[in-house]
Design brief:
By secondary structure, this protein is an all-alpha fold. The protein is 52% helix and 3% strand. A 3-stranded antiparallel β-sheet has the order 1-2-3. The longest helix has 34 residues.
């Protein structure tokens, strides 16, 4: 049975109220009109990786996985239609249902194996792999087929979740499997195939960057940005350990490319969260209370918010004011609620995470620039000539001049250190 990860992100969780405690909320005419603008964008063009990733834990070809996803999609859509339109009750089917009925389940990654793999809290993936080389060979051998399934996603263009937006709908559980890839690339590098290991990390980074740009739910964005960040940091560490005259593998140009505004897309997430919020309120019997989150969804999809994340600046609080709430109703129906402050905090948390992701892309691009512009000058002096842009306020020289430290806006994330190749004599 697929481990269920609830698609209950900031908007949905923030808006669920109990029907027996709160009176119905009557939205204003303006709010109703604005809600019509929160339409789910059309699916981007290109081959969609999400149906293949839906059943990663089963031994299937990509074609078999896509067929199984379509079967599950039909079941989920029918259930959602009956549950929300006709008022039918019942539990969601276990997913992935079709794959479990037709394919062999691959071995699960154990907690001990997962602890050995390179993750976001691993200070140096290369050092960790060197310390546990033999153990990791065994892990990768045991999960050889799962790794092959993850790598099969390279040929796809987008990551678009087409399952019904719903607070009870599980998402594809891909995070543990994704970390197999950067761990395998690191092992390949430390075993002597440095160009092959770097090419593998860059291929993963470029793929996850591409998927993150199109991901249309919060959790999918989190998974894809995490995959891109882990592999980018690994690739830059590899780059710092390689001679300057070694040719850069072709995938690294895409992995290290300077980020563009097209990689910051929130419209799909905003619409998805709004629909899920509506369904959450219907499930709770709290009529009309989804509108407390309408301003959040509109703000998330606003160009001002998108630009703030890309340019690494704060989101102006006024972006929440497009859908003003009826404060008198709120005081009567939900006493003590500080809704505006809560919505602003959730919006800032989302933007902070996105800005940190973009900063990581800029950092990787800077690492490539430093690699291709060797100099006998100190690292601090070299930075004065580098194309820093918004990175200038985030980075400082550390490790006695041998690394850069990038601060994170998301306070629970440890500031990252980026190794830089020693200056040329």
């Amino acid at each position: 049975m697929k481990q269920r990860i609830w698609a209950c992100a900031a908007l949905v969780c923030m808006s669920v109220v109990a029907a027996d405690e709160y009176k119905p909320y009557r939205p204003t005419t303006e709010q109703v009109a604005l809600a019509r603008t929160l339409q789910t964008p059309s699916q981007p063009t290109g081959r969609n990786a999400y149906p293949v990733a839906w059943s990663l834990e089963f031994d299937m070809t990509p074609a078999e996985a896509e067929k199984a996803y379509q079967a599950d999609h039909a079941v989920a859509s029918d259930w959602a239609r009956r549950h929300w339109a006709d008022g039918a009750q019942g539990k969601w089917p276990s997913f992935p249902y079709a794959a479990a009925a037709t394919a062999k389940r691959l071995p699960d990654i154990t907690a001990a194996e997962y602890a050995l793999m390179c993750g976001k809290s691993t200070p140096s993936c290369l050092d960790a792999v060197r310390a546990h080389r033999n153990d990791l060979r065994a892990v990768l051998k045991r999960h050889e087929r799962l790794l092959a399934r993850v790598k099969s996603l390279v040929g796809y263009d987008i990551w678009w979740n087409t399952m019904p937006p719903d607070p009870l709908m599980p998402v594809a559980r891909v995070q543990p499997a994704l970390q197999l890839w950067n761990t395998a690339a690191a092992l390949q590098f430390v075993d002597g195939d440095t160009s092959g290991g770097l090419a593998s990390a860059c291929t993963a980074s470029a793929s996850f960057r591409r998927f993150q740009a199109s991901a249309n739910t919060q959790l999918d964005r989190v998974f894809m940005s995490a995959g891109a960040r882990l592999n980018l940091q690994l690739a830059t560490d590899m780059l710092a350990a390689m001679p300057i005259d070694v040719p850069l593998p072709a995938p690294c140009r895409k992995a290290f490319a300077t980020p563009t505004i097209e990689e910051v897309q929130f419209g799909g997430v905003a619409a998805n969260e709004w629909v899920a919020s509506q369904r959450a309120q219907e499930m709770a019997g709290a009529k009309g209370w989804e509108y407390i989150s309408e301003g959040w969804a509109l703000a998330l999809g606003d160009e001002v918010t998108r630009r703030a994340a890309f340019e690494d600046i704060e989101v102006p609080a006024t972006v929440l004011d497009r859908a003003p709430m009826d404060e008198a109703q709120i005081r009567e129906g939900w006493p003590g609620a500080s809704l505006r402050e809560g919505r602003l905090a959730n919006l800032n948390a989302f933007v902070d995470r996105a800005a940190d992701y973009v900063a990581t892309l800029r950092m990787a691009s800077l690492m490539l620039w430093l690699h291709e512009h060797p100099s006998p000058q100190s690292l601090q002096a070299r930075l004065s000539a580098a194309p820093l842009g918004p990175l200038a306020k985030r980075i400082s020289v550390g490790c006695s001049g041998r690394c850069l430290v990038m601060t994170e806006r998301k306070t629970y994330v440890v500031n990252r250190t980026w190794a830089v190749r020693p200056t040329e004599p």
